[in-house]
Amino acid sequence: MGFTYENIYYDIFYRDSDLWETSNLDGKVIDKIKSFSSLQLRWDFGQGEPPSNESIQQAIGIYQFGLLLGFNGDARPETDGGVILNLFIDDNFVYLTIKKDGGIDLRYEKGIGVNYEIIQDRENVSFERISKTLQKIKKQCFLSELYTSKNMTPIAEGFQVIASNDTELEYL
Fold first, then answer.
1. pLDDT in tens, 33-42
2. CA atoms within 13 A on the CB side of 124
3. Domain ranges, residue 82
4. Which is higher by pLDDT, 76 or 145?
5. What pLDDT, in 10s, does the model give residues 73-86?
6. Domains in the chain: how many in total?
7. Residue 105 falls within a domain, yes or no?
8. Distances (CA, A) of 40 to 55, 57, 80, 84, 98
9. Which residues have CB under 8 Å from 73's CB, separation 6+?
10. In a domain, 100, yes or no
11. Could you give phi then psi for residue 95, rounded to 5 degrees?
C-alpha cells in the first residue's frame, strides 16, 4: 500500500500546528497532479502513458506531507506512467520519482545552481525514509534560522540565543 494523505501521522498536526493551513492543501500543485489522470496514451509526442492512479495518490499524499513541514513543490508526469515530485525549502531540493509500479526513488541535493551537493540518491525507498529525510531537512532549516545573528542578542564577546518560553529545541 502506498502513502496517501489519510496515512499522515497526525501528531504532526499537533506538534507543528502553526504549519497547518488547509488553504495550502487545496493548491494549484494538487490540481496539477490530479490533472495527470486525464492524459491520453501517447501524450508526449507519440510516447507516454498517463500516470497510474496509485502514482497520483502517492504524489498528492507526499506533497501534502511536505507542505505540512513547510516545503514548497511542483510535479510533472513521466512518460513511463510515473510522477516526478519536487519538494524544496531554502537551498534543499528533494526529487521523488514515483513509479507506476509503486516504487519511489529519492534524490536529495543541497545548494543552488551549479553549486550543489548530492546528499542522498536512493532507489525504492519507503515512506518512512522519505518522512525522516524531510523532517531532518526541516529541522536543520529551523535550527539554521534560529541560530542566525538576527535571532541572537550580542553579549560580551559572543551571542546569546533568545527563544520564547514555549520553544523547545531538540538536538539532531
1. 999 999 999 9
2. 1
3. 5-161
4. 76
5. 999 999 999 999 99
6. 1
7. yes
8. 16, 18, 12, 18, 19
9. 29, 63, 66, 67, 85, 86, 87, 88
10. yes
11. -110, 120
